[in-house]
Amino acid sequence: MQQTLSIIKPDAVKKNVIGKIIDIFESNDLEINQMKKIKLSSENVAQFYAEHKNRPFFTNLKDYMTSGDVVIIVLEGENAIIKNRTLMGATNPKEAETGTIRQRFATDISQNAVHGSDSETSAKREIDFFFPKI
Ligand code: CMP
């Protein structure tokens, strides 16, 4: 069993599709291990997305990710990392395959409905970031 971190981002939360997205995870044998709905601070976003801090879209990313509540989910299942990324579809919803979460629910490349860890190393870092072990 593998774990991965998913974030349902502010645009999807505002569209009231949290349940529809969770249904896609559960229908594809991904279980919810931990989950919380929170509002991120700019500091949270700067730390979480540290690798993107020099990208031109970083200020936009911070504004967007702090614009409303997000749902942070630890998903668990066989090949959870790649499975979640397949279910999400491409970063740019215009390039996302039909039926993927981003194709169905994303607004555009910046406001793209969901985040998913891209490797085992980032999954561990991202899960520890939001659900630190006591
Ligand atoms: P995510 O997979 O969470 O990782 C970085 C985020 O930056 C990405 O989703 C988008 O929300 C956002 N972003 C905005 N513009 C771009 C871009 N041009 N390329 C990649 N990511 C972008």
From TrEMBL:
Binding annotation for ATP: 9, 57, 85, 91, 102, 112
Cofactor: Mg(2+)
Record carries keyword DNA-binding: no
Intracellular or extracellular location(s): Cytoplasm
EC category name: transferase
EC assignment: 2.7.4.6
Active site: 115 (pros-phosphohistidine intermediate)
One Gene Ontology term, aspect cellular component: cytoplasm
Alphabetized InterPro entries for the sequence: NDK-like_dom, NDK-like_dom_sf, Nucleoside_diP_kinase, Nucleoside_diP_kinase_AS
Reaction equation(s) it catalyzes: a 2'-deoxyribonucleoside 5'-diphosphate + ATP = a 2'-deoxyribonucleoside 5'-triphosphate + ADP; a ribonucleoside 5'-diphosphate + ATP = a ribonucleoside 5'-triphosphate + ADP
Gene Ontology BP, a term: GTP biosynthetic process
Alphabetic keyword roster: ATP-binding, Cytoplasm, Kinase, Magnesium, Metal-binding, Nucleotide metabolism, Nucleotide-binding, Phosphoprotein, Transferase
Annotated Nucleoside diphosphate kinase-like domain residues: 1-134
GO molecular function ontology, one term from the record: metal ion binding
HAMAP family reported for this sequence: NDP_kinase (MF_00451)
Subunit field text: Homotetramer.
Reported function: Major role in the synthesis of nucleoside triphosphates other than ATP. The ATP gamma phosphate is transferred to the NDP beta phosphate via a ping-pong mechanism, using a phosphorylated active-site intermediate.
Protein family membership: Belongs to the NDK family.
Name this protein carries in UniProt: Nucleoside diphosphate kinase
Organism in which the protein naturally occurs: uncultured Campylobacterales bacterium
Gene (name only): ndk
